[in-house]
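Database export, one record per block. Field names are fixed; values are copied verbatim from the stored entry.
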Amino acid sequence: AIEKVELKVKPKATVKTYDGNVKTSYDVETEGLVSGDNFSSIFNANFTGDAVTKKDIGTYDVSVEVTAKNQNKFNSYAITCLDSTLTINPATFSVVWNNDSVVYNGQSQKLVPTYTGLVGNDANLISYSYSDANCKNVGDYSVTLDISNLTNYVTSSELRYEYKITRKAVTLTWNFDSVTYNGQIQKPVATISGLVAADATLGDSLSYSYSNNSSKDVGEYNATLITTDFDANYTFTNPTINYNITPRELKVNWSPFEPVVVDGYDHCASVANVEGAVESEYPSIIGSIVVTGASSEVGTHTCTASLDNGNYVITEGNQTTFEILPISED
């Protein structure tokens, strides 16, 4: 009988980094394989032990069973199978924070990072602890990561992160910054654009501070939105507006004036009426117009209408002419 060749077969000791997968196949080391023989052409290697079922970090045994692929060659060997080990080392992951500031949006904003190096759904094993239960209003917040369930990883990243929720900018649209005198108190009001949905009703009832609560006469005034209800979470681009009440324009209409013959007396045209005055103020306005330019001398003369009232300005018809004729020699 031909004596069989002693062959020792052993899985190659393997070290890997955790990747979430089970390793079921291994390289083998042999001792006694005849020169010119190829192991994989003669033998099938089947691996068993904890190493082929475990994926978490640790050191596990791996065994090998050898069966024939080439029976004739196989029969020429006396095979001894030896055990080996698989070592799975922790993987390294990093925490990546995308920003340290978010703008108020009326909702809870609990920042979470992204990760590099985590396998599959392992990020779901991380839990978060926040400095505030809501993380909603403007302010400073922090979040701490609990990675105690990430037993297959190590990291050098900071596990506590600080971030801010900053004010949201909103715009006020004032209904006027200049208005013509009308005899009434005139104070501008604003509408707000940019409030988040949760705060929309705050724009329904606004309060203001005015430099003059009875801003009726011509002049310059200012108005400021009282932002007490908004200050915590918003900033305003134009919370104060300067506004003007401008004079009301008048047109003076003159009564017809037929030329007169010089008679030694002063003559002048007279105002028939004015247009543009506030209706309730008309009697006062017409009665306050002063006409100058009377003359008793022969010639063409100019009459001027003026009004000492800061709320009105005569812009049309403030002057007219009249004529005094010489005495005829006929």
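Remark 1: The two ends are 177 Å apart (CA to CA).
Remark 2: Residues 282-288 form the longest helix (7 residues).
End of record.
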